[in-house]
Structure formats: structure tokens, C-alpha cells
Design brief:
alpha/beta; six-stranded parallel sheet; two-stranded antiparallel sheet; 8 strands; 33% helix
Amino acid sequence: MGEYAKIDARDGSQLKEEPAKPAERNGNTMSKAAVIYWSGTGNTETMANAVLAGLREAGAEAELFAVDKIAPAEAAGYDKLALGCPSMGAEVLEEAEFEPFFTKLENSIAGKPVALFGSYGWGDGEWMRNWKDRCEAKDANLVTEGLIANETPDDTALAACKDLGRKLAEA
């Protein structure tokens, strides 16, 4: 396929090719973030909404998705990811939807700012430590060790979620 010159329709002159510039805000290059979560009881969804609020308060362009509403390939196109999943069973990621999603996504997170969060009802956070280790093995740029809330997130946990969103926005 040949290359074509872009011509200004007003005067017939050739237009200069300039690379597209990312959106800017306050002199900083903007990037898009996705907050992607799975929630069985609503606890992790509540956390996801607080992370989203923190991202947006920090000026980030961010979108919220339940894990069944976004494909791993689409998620990989975002510059920053906040991923939320509660502890399930023997302290593992939810196995029917979130684990298969993350398994397909994890090869696309190298160098990408990633924030992990989720709720739990038992155990000591082993699922989050394992998830963090998986992300580090794929060279993700984790913004924190992972944020966990026991059962329904209280005001302190929700404030931490907003802070997590702000940290991701700044990463």
C-alpha cells in the first residue's frame, strides 16, 4: 500500500505530519485508568467506587467495569489498572470470572501502574499476597502492597480506597 500526502483543502499545500499528543491537564500528560472488579456481596464493588472517586479527584480519566463487562485485551489497552477481587474459598481470587480474566491479562501488565484491592471475611490476606507476587513476577508497577478490607468497608477503608485511587493517578 502506498503512502499518501495530506493536503490542506484550503490552499493545496502539503500538511506536516505531527505525532498525536496525549491529552494534557495542568501540564501533565493524562492517561486512562480502568477500575475492574468482581464482587459477590457488594463489598468489593463499594471499594471499587471509592478507588474510582480517588482517581477522578486526582484528575485522572477513569472508567469503572465489572469484570464481566470488559475483555482482558480491552483492559490491557488502559495505561493504569485498579483491580479488585475479594478473597474466595481457601484465600484465592474468584475462580469463575476473575481468575480467568486475570490469567489472560497478566502477561500485559509489565511496566504498567497497577493497584490491587479487595475484601475478605476470613484468613489473613494470603490471597492478596499471592496476587501481588503474581503481578511482581510479571513486572507490574504496583503502587502499593495491595489494599484489603475485612467484610463491609468502613469509613477508614473507603478513605484508604480513595487514597489508593489518588496514588494510582499519580503513578
